[in-house]
Queue: 2 jobs
Job 1
Amino acid sequence: MPNRLKAPTIITTHMNADFDALAAMIAASRLYPDATLVFPGSQEKNLRNFYIQSAMYMFNFRGVKEIDLSSVSRLVVVDTRQKSRVNHVAQVFENPNLVIDAYDHHPNSEDDVVHRDGIVVNWGSTATILCHELMKRGVTLDRDEANIIGLGIYEDTGSFTFNSTTPQDFAAASWLLSQGMDVTFIADLITRDLSSDQIALLNTMLESAKTHEIKGVSVVITEVSTEEYVNDFALLAHKMLDMEHIHVLFALARMNDRIQMVARSRIPDVDVGLICASFGGGGHAAAASASIKDRTPSQVKDELFALLYSHINPQQVVRQLMSHPPILIESDHTTAQASETMTRFGLKAAPVVDPKTGECKGILEHQIADKAVSHGLGSAPATDYLMRSNASVPPDSDLYNVMEIILGQGQRLVPVVEDGHVIGVLTRTDLINILIEEPARIPESLLPERMRERNVRIMLRDRLPRELFNILLRAGELARDVGMEAYAVGGFIRDILLNTPNSDLDLVVEGDGIAFARTLAQSMGGRVRAHHKFRTAVVILENGQRIDVATARLEYYEYPAALPTVELSSIKMDLYRRDFTINALAVQLNPANFGKLVDFFGAQRDIKNRVVRVLHSLSFVEDPTRILRAIRFAKRYNFRIGGQTDRLIRNAMQLDMIPKLSGSRIFHELNLIFEEEHAVDCLRQMRDYRLLEAIHPLLTLTPAQENLLEEIEKVRDWYRLLYLDEKPRNWMIYLLAVFNGMPEEDILSVCTRLNLTKRQSSDILTLRTQTNETVYRFKMWRHRGGPVSELFFMLEMLPLEGLLFFMSRYNQEEVRKSLSMYLTQLKGMELDVSGRDLKGMGLEPGPLYGEILRKLRAAMLDGQATCRDDQLALARRLAKDQRYIGLDAAPR
């Protein structure tokens, strides 16, 4: 990344930074004088303006896009240690030998990074911690530094009124005064008069506030909603706390597309930092906040109640509720033996453990084991088809952790582990029986077998072209009129949530999909192409928009790698047949529920965590092309392949599933990969899984091929930015690179495996020959210093794919300049003379026309006939000089 700044040491903080975070960064810069400050941004407008107008210039902050993150060897994080809160520098954590220093005043969490140096103490602010370190080292601050650092301390201690304030905070402020801190400056920013909008919102907060008695503790919850972001919502919550003498407050505000949660606690019974951390936020026991994007206010409130009931004086622990002793399956048992054991004891799932160590390897579901046996895989080890990660709890854990795993993550049972051994289990049935008598409300977002209550209508309206949004509205109205339920599904919904353009519209109806497609086409003036075997249809509108319509169905596979057999089913079963959770989303279109998001399998969570996760453990056995799709999606969205999904891919590779696929299906997936922006990364991942050699033993990815493919990617991206009409066949360019240096008979062998047509195979070989010949002629032309026209006629004979491959293969400046000039200038130059002009001179139509026009083009390109008059004059001379042309012709 030549245009990005090399930064061996960077200092950064959490997203949505507050004054304490900004202050801590500036203080840390005095401890690390050579560090680069990377500010992640803030939602508080006053802080953003302050930062832009002052701090950016004074302290030389950088945006993360300006930094070459691969160059970072030391990461200094302040005011947080949670990895999930510094996603803007997530790439840095992959750097080898990375050293992390942390300065933080928040309590420990499971998501904390492992740091080598730094200071973590429970003081009122992180700025205080750094002040004491600066004092120790005898550092002198200037007035601007003292003011900004002081601002952080005043804000996070509530001007020394929060019960989290410590003597060290006062000592730090005293030192800052000696360094020139201006308390008037601090007061102007901390103590501000409320605007009329803020006063109105505060009134609404007071009116909507409700007090709930939760296990003897009074908790006030207030909810407001506003279309626009309101500055200093935390300030309003703090004022409400003071005005009403509240001990525990949770203020929830829906602003734009997210919910802001601000929490304050004046009693030790409620740790608001711990509760906000469960929503992806942070803070400490007395003051915390969270910004929640993927849930409705109702879902947030329900989950908040469950957390409060769990964390306030929890009365029951897992040890009192678990079933014991558990029925276990030993990891050296076969899948058939495991299925028999679960049948005997009537189990829907069971833990699989190491017979020697007792370590839990995972959970095996009875349904999956039975299905594997039906596929003839009963002799495979029981560990091959464990689904999901092995989430377990200790016996002293509280109930909410179990709810999170069973209801939130969909794990059928939770092993209870003590000293490395499974001593009991809590099943879904156990949990339901407990919750019948449990007064705590179950979070709606964790309820099993239900659609999530999130509505994305506004997101659809804002992120889709108007024409596409209207199609969805019309489809929903038609479905209502004919008594069906219609849904937009799959990757179309995934990309809306990711805010990625995608006009490939897929609809599913609970009813006759083909009949619905015909109704839709008639309504919108389109035509229908039906596929009765799969009960699907394509509606093609006059503007070229395609709408795929399917009947809600469940697919099952008669044998591994087979094409699917289709049965009618519901939308849930239709989504379950899909490949990955992120593609198993739907949005209801019928007017009564338009925009309601359907997420049975945790796709929103996986999108948030940036992970590709397969829906069931036999997915790659039933359709091995999903392995290539997993790689393609992971690289397209910069996601990772989940741990269990990775293991299942490797298992499918060991079972030698790829050779069972037809060449056409493999080539189809490869063709899609070659269209991706990060195709080379996909090929690297395929090599790591040994997919290339599984497709054909002659397919490799050597360092030389990698370098060539990387150049192809650069050239392809450069060509795309030219916005020319002609589009290259990317698969051909990439295969030329993969085939580079390979004998012709080996190329034909690979082409045969991929089931390429004779025409496609011939095109590849011809293009390779043409490119090599052009390379030779180009070198001779450059050596002679030949005219521009010769370059034009030389390259004119080479297809676009060959030109781009040529440019990639010979990464020399002169070559790039010449080919660039041809593509961007020469190729588009038109003569001012045509055959009509030659006919007007009295020449008979025939081969002479082509020869004269070629001579004219050469003269134009070489600067000898640049205007119409010069070209006409030259054409007349050529028509009279038969020896020059080399053809016998005469005017009439």
Job 2
Amino acid sequence: KIILKQTLNSVTGKSEWEPENLEEHDYFTDIARSSYADMLHDTERNKLYYEAIKLAVEETHRQGKVAKVLDIGTGSGLLSMMAATAGAEVITAIEVNIVKRKGNKRIVLVTKKNGFGQIKVINKHSTEVELGKDLAEKANILITELFDTELIGEGALSAYHHAHQNLMEENCIAVPHKATTFIQLVESETMLKWNQLLPIKIGKNVEIQPNKELVDGHGVPSVHDIQLSQFPVDKFKAVSDPTAVFQFEWGSKELTDDLRSNMVEMKAISSGTAQVVLSWWDLQMDQEGGVILSTAPKWCHPTPHNMQWRDHWIQSVYFLPTQISYNKDDIIRLKAFHDDYSLWFDNGEPDPTDERPQCDYPPRMIWSRPRLGMLNDNYRNSIFVKAIESLNIEEGRAICLSDFSLLPLVVAQCHPRLGVVALEKSTIAQRGLVELKRSNNIDNLEVVRYDPEDISKSLESGDISLFVAEPFFATSYLPWHDLYFWYARSQLELGDHCKVMPCKAHLCLAAVEFKDLWKIRAPVGEVEGFDISDMDRLIEEALEKKEIREAEAHALWEYPCTLVTPPCRVMCFDFTSCVPEKPIISNGSVDIAPTKHNAEMCHGVVLWMEYQLTPNPNHCISTGLQPASINGDFTPHTTSPPIWTMHHRQAVFFHKQPFELSNVKTMDYNLTFLPQSGEINMKYSGAL
């Protein structure tokens, strides 16, 4: 019996029916988008875990005990196999996340193939494991890899607390033994644009000012995690040195998941304003402190010229609710907090009533950190303003469509004689726009909620002079998903006099060699002498599923790469006409560029969109390479390393088998845009 469920296609805006088999979908999606390969390619992590596990087993044997290992969050089973090789007699591996059914069996196969049939695998959350039922006796060595960028965001504290209280012997050994979180205060106007809305200049004397709630309130509650080593060093100034703030004794029964606070004192190393808190952590893998793993960014890493690249543990960015200026050598006092999942920071003196800050203004929560950066991009805003001002529209209605965009305010200010209608799906976004309209005294703007399947139902009859969008939609995953604007435009009967902005979009691509990102999809084979090829096949099985194999989204400003073909436009979407019924097909080839940057491999293809706002070639914005091309001329981008926008994610298609540039002269592409689904099928190959 097949059960169907109704879903909304976020690209076409149409309802669709699909089999309700969420477990199967989640299984393949989670596997394919997991960090298994990234973690298994982390040679430093693997080496240091192995070293510390051997020390733990040796110490247990020195005490005359049988080594009984509990491995929580075993993943591929690698750490359990390390424990077996080190001589542990009893090993229990626990995993709950993406190893349901097939994955759980695959871990058993991996461990048995390597000759470790004594490893028992339990497919439960560790807090559900019962002594005497799932676990015969308490363990004396606790091995875990439960950490995320924020250290405790995957529930490490509750898992450790439960294990110590229920599953571990007294005075057990933990690997890792201890963690220390570090912070550094910085001043950065660029980072600050990820946290609060700034005024938008429209003319010499006209600005759109954010209302007070958009400036002063707390925004998105989740941490902003990025590859800090890739953030431009000239875009921030250190106000303090790195300072330890919390320690977590993983082997202690006293470890709890209760809220904890700490008053941190540090000396200002320069005069400046403390605006942003950068954070990372170190793991002390062994009891003696001789095996240390650091996730510090490059400028303060213990071995900056020999750093392990990883994407499963990066760095965290937090924003202070109050900005305070300091002179050099002043003493800075900062309050630090953590609960069972996250950290936060505040200025001022400690207060026993301090609680995790909550957003008290819902419209602000709609904007992600990159989206706020996009709205605060002066260059991007100036292009929109110039394009809107250039439109020769004297009267009529302007319809604006995007997700909580400020574009309707700009259109209303630039063309005060137009009646502007902002279409919004979200009632929270409606509230935000209405309050921005009031605070800026804009009278010619109406905010209307709409039905994505038929926006005409939400509009009164009458001529439309302008249909405009950024376009930006929060549900978009890949760059072309914002083409919903095109489908919405096709629902309306627009007269020949109606202007559409953007007037067209171009899909662009370039083949690249990644410095490191390729590792997240590369087969592992062996790790520290253990055969992990069965996990490789598990990941490949998931990647073969159509929705994953086609492309995935990455913010490439965080991942250095080299262009190995010239960038080019490969497909055009004409918004002045309706979405066609037949597919749009684009076949062609691009030359492999000379390896002037010492590139040797082609790992995949990057795709992004360029939006031509008006026929003026200067009115163009890019969701990929910066700046946008001029009528498809990418000449400046072929002579220097690529610069990617920090506001958008680009689509990356990883070749199943990367190819050596010396073996090919061109890269062939075959792209098909499917109007019924809004998706793009793609194939690529290298050719002589």
